[in-house]
Design goal:
453 residues; mainly beta; eight-stranded mixed sheet; six-stranded mixed sheet; binds CU-O-CU linkage; binds copper (II) ion
C-alpha cells in the first residue's frame, strides 16, 4: 500500500530541468540559489514495528551532503505510521540518545502508560514497550519526544514522524490515494558550519533559517493533472505557518487535527500553528507540463514545496457536500475552568512541576475550557487524552476559521485572544498533560498535569 520513495524520486527527477526558470519569491530565502530536490515521501510502517530506535544519524536532505540529526530508525522524518481504527499498535522504543527521552503519540487517544508523557521518560540506553489500540477516527497525527525540558531540542534535532489513522468512513469517500495522497511534514531548521542541524533557540523560541518538507531542502514534486490530497503537519518548534499557493488559487480543507470536517471548506490561506494538521485537496489539473506553483508560507516569505506539472493525466475528485458526521458536543455556556498562558513559562501563574497534579477532570463529562493569553503569543494550546471542539474566539482575530471546525487537539491562541473549547474525556482515565506547543514555552514550564478521574 501507499507510496514508495523510489517512485516519487523517479517522478521528481523527470521534471528536474523545469525548475531553473522559476520566479523566486521576492525576499524569500533560498538554499543555495535555485537548486531544488525531489520531495521524498517518508517510508510507511504498518501498525506493528518491532523497534523504534532514536539515535544520532546522518541524513541527506536532498543536496547530497550528509548532515547530523537525531532520527527515529535513521529516518528524517521518522517512518510514517499507518494504522486502522481498531488495530493494535506495538513497538519498542530504544533510547540511543545521551539524555532521557520518551515518545508521545500526538493526537492519539491512548491510556496513560502509552501516552509518552514526561513522567514516562526513559534514561539513555533504556527501552519502553508500547501497546495500544486505535480507538478514534481517521486523521493525521504524529509522534515526537516528550521528556520534560528536552522536547524542543529533540524535535528541532529531527525526532518526529507522521502517524496516519484510517477508517471505514474515510474509505467510503474514495479520496485521492496512493501517489495522489502526499504527507507534508513542514518545519524550519538551522545548520552549523558543517551542515548539521543545530538547536539554537532565542528568548522567543527556536526559529530555523530554512524550511524543510519531509526532511528535504527546496523540495519539488512532479504532479499529474488532477487532484492531490495533501496531509500537512506544522512540525516547527516556534513558527506559525501562513500557507497559500503562490498564485493565490483556492484549495479545499477537508480535515484537520481530529480528522475529517463535516463539510469541505474552500480557502485561499490557512494560518497553521505548531502541531496543527490539515487535510487538503489541491487541484493541479490546470498545471501543464513543466509549469509550476509553490506552496508558500506568506509570513516567512518561503516557498515550501514547488509542484511541477508532469503533463500526465491524474485523478479528478469532487468532495461530497457532507464529508463526515461530526456531532457537536453540547456543554456549559460558561467556562468550567480557565487557563491563562502567562509569560513564556507559566499557566495560571505556575511553572510546570512534574510531581504536581494541577487539576482533576471528571471522566465522561463535557466541560468548557477557556484559554487566555497574558502575552508572548502565539501559544498553540494542546491537550492530551481527548480531542475537543473549538466554540469561540474573542479578542485578537475575534473569529473561528473553517479549519478549526470538527475535532481538534491543538488550537492557536494569538495575543489578546480568548478561546473556548468543549472537551470530554470518555476513553481513558488517568494522568495526562496539557501545554503550549511552542516547544520552548513547554520546556520552560508552560505545561500542567491533570488527572481524569
Ligand atoms: Cu505534540 Cu504534548 O505534545
Ligand atoms: Cu499530544
Ligand atoms: Cu506558548
Amino acid at each position: 500500500m501507499g507510496w514508495t520513495r523510489r517512485e516519487v524520486l523517479v517522478a521528481g527527477a523527470a521534471s528536474f530541468g523545469a525548475v531553473a526558470n522559476w520566479p523566486v519569491l521576492a525576499g524569500g530565502r533560498r538554499w543555495r540559489g535555485q537548486e531544488a530536490y525531489a520531495l521524498p515521501v517518508p517510508q510507511e510502517t504498518p501498525a506493528s514495528l518491532p523497534l523504534l530506535n532514536c539515535a544520532p544519524a546522518q541524513v541527506d536532505m536532498g543536496d547530497g551532503v550528509l548532515r547530523g540529526v537525531l532520527a527515529y530508525n535513521g529516518m528524517f522524518p521518522g517512518p510514517t505510521w499507518v494504522a486502522r481504527q481498531g488495530e493494535w499498535v506495538t513497538t519498542r522504543l530504544v533510547n540511543g540518545l545521551d539524555e532521557p527521552t520518551i515518545t508521545h503519540w500526538h493526537g492519539l487517544i491512548v491510556d496513560h502508560a502509552n501516552d509518552g508523557g514526561p513522567f514516562l521518560a526513559i534514561p539513555p540506553g533504556g527501552q519502553y514497550d508500547y501497546q495500544f489500540q486505535i480507538r478514534q477516527r481517521a486523521g493525521l497525527n504524529f509522534y515526537h519526544p516528550h521528556p520534560d525540558m528536552l522536547t524542543g531540542k529533540q524535535v528541532a534535532m529531527g525526532l518526529a514522524g507522521a502517524f496516519i489513522v484510517r477508517d471505514a468512513e474515510e474509505d467510503a469517500l474514495g479520496l485521492p490515494a496512493q501517489q495522489y495522497e502526499v504527507p507534508l511534514v513542514i518545519r524550519d531548521a538551522s545548520f552549523d558550519k558543517s551542515g548539521n542541524l543545530v538547536y539554537n533557540p532565542t528568548s522567543s523560541g527556536f526559529r530555523g533559517k530554512f524550511p524543510l518538507v519531509n526532511g528535504t531542502l527546496n523540495p519539488m514534486l512532479a504532479v499529474d493533472r488532477g487532484v492531490y490530497r495533501l496531509r500537512v503537519l506544522n512540525g516547527s518548534n516556534a513558527r506559525v505557518l501562513r500557507l497559500a499557493l503562490a498564485n493565490g488559487a483556492p484549495f479545499t480543507v477537508i480535515g484537520n487535527d481530529g480528522g475529517l470536517l463535516a463539510r469541505p471548506a474552500i480557502v485561499t490561506q490557512v494560518l497553521l500553528g505548531m502541531a496543527e494538521r490539515l487535510d487538503l485537496l489541491v487541484d493541479f489539473s490546470a498545471l501543464g507540463a513543466g509549469q509550476g506553483v509553490a506552496l508558500q508560507c506568506l509570513d516567512a516569505r518561503w516557498n515550501l514545496v514547488q509542484f511541477v506539472g508532469s503533463g500526465k493525466v491524474g485523478v479528478s475528485y469532487t468532495p461530497p457536500a457532507v464529508l463526515s458526521a461530526v456531532t457537536a458536543l453540547s456543554g456549559p455556556s460558561q467556562p468550567t475552568r480557565t487557563f491563562s498562558f502567562d509569560g513564556m513559562s507559566r499557566i495560571n501563574g505556575k511553572v510546570y512541576d512534574i510531581h504536581r497534579i494541577d487539576f482533576t477532570v471528571p471522566f465522561g463529562v463535557t466541560e468548557r475550557w477557556r484559554f487566555k493569553t497574558g502575552g508572548n503569543a502565539p501559544h498553540p494550546i494542546h491537550v492530551h487524552g481527548a480531542s475537543f471542539q473549538v466554540v469561540s474566539r474573542t479578542g485578537g482575530r475575534g473569529t473561528l476559521y473553517p479549519w478549526e471546525a470538527g475535532w481538534k487537539d491543538t488550537v492557536l491562541l494569538n495575543d489578546k485572544e480568548t478561546v473556548d473549547v468543549l472537551i470530554r474525556f470518555d476513553v481513558y482515565r488517568g494522568l495526562y498533560v496539557m501545554h503550549c506547543h511552542q516547544l520552548e514555552h513547554e520546556g520552560s514550564g508552560m505545561m500542567a498535569n491533570f488527572e481524569v478521574v
